[in-house]
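Lab notes, practical 5.
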Amino acid sequence: MADVNGIDNIIARYSKETATSQSTAQSLGKTEFLKLLVAQLKNQDPLNPMDGTDFAAQLAQFSSLEQLNNLNEGIKNLGIYQMSQANAQAVNLIGKEVVIGKGNAFQVAGNAVDLSYELAGAAKTVNIDIFDEKGALVDSFKVGDQDAGTNRVTWNGGVNHNGKYTFGVTATGSDGAEVTVTTLASGKVTAVSFKNQSIYVNVDGREIAFSDVREVKQA
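Output from the prediction step:
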C-alpha cells in the first residue's frame, strides 16, 4: 500500500493536479476533504498508521479554515449592504440643501440663503461680508453673542438676485480678542455619481465626496 505522510501531502498533491486540469482554481470543500480523508485512511501504512492526535489536529485546522471562509463571506456581504445603504442615502439628498465642509461659496436664485461657519470659541460680535462673483463687496452685517461651534445666519440680500457669491466671517470674543472662524460651503445637491467604489454628490456644479457632507438642511 502507498505510504502517505499526512493529509497535508494529499491536499497539496490534489491541489496541484487540479490546477493543471482546470482553468480556474477551486477551493477545497467538504466533499473533497472527506474523499481525501477516506483515501488516506485506506492507503495508510498499517505498520505506521496515522497518529490520532495528528488526525484530530488536521480536522481542527480544516474546521477553522471553513469558519474563516464563512466569516470572510459574511464580512463581504455586510460591506455590500452598507454600500447599498449609503447609495440610497446619497440619492435621497438630490434637491436638498447641504453643508459640505470648508469653503465659502454659495449660490442664490432670488432667495434668502443660510450661511454656516464654525467658531473656535464664543463670540461677542460676528461680522459677515458678502462678495459677488467678481470679488466686489455687496453687503456687510453683524450678529452678536454666538456660542463656539457651528453657527448659521440668514442673508436676505439674495432676494430678487441671481448668481454666485462668497462670504467672509470675522469674530471677536468678549475680551476683544479675535476668534478663529472656519466658513462652511453650502448648496443644493443636483446629482449623485458613483466612481471607483466611492460616492460623490454634485453641489451647484461642484463634485463633492459624499463623506464631506456635514449637514442636511431642513426644507
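Observations recorded by the TA: The chain has two domains: 7-91, 97-216. The CA atoms of residues 123 and 146 lie 5 Å apart.
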